[in-house]
Amino acid sequence: MKAIIEISQTSAGQIVTLLGIGNTEVEARRAAYAYVVGRGHNDFDDEYEGGTLLTVSPRLAELVRRGDDAWDDTYDESGRLVESSASDDYLNMTRALASLRVDQGMLDTKEGKKA
Asked: Do 41 and 52 form a contact (C-beta atoms < 8 A)?
């Protein structure tokens, strides 16, 4: 799994921002384009040319895979949202993505890091 990130230095330390993630570099760059340029859309499969390409750690990749389809919404006949719930897998993924770090050249998460 590959990721496109940006790293910013602030007075509080280093901030890693995930721009796109996918099984391949192309998928990650297309996802980054949708996020950065297309406001969530990438109708022509454009690829983002900036950022830093990293391999995603096996641990983070597993959290993303397990959480990716774990959001469950229920709608009524008129299309109105009736119920929405997130499984533990989804919540674990969002926590992991909120605490990214670069470790030995790989994108990983600080969440649940062993000392």
From this structure: no
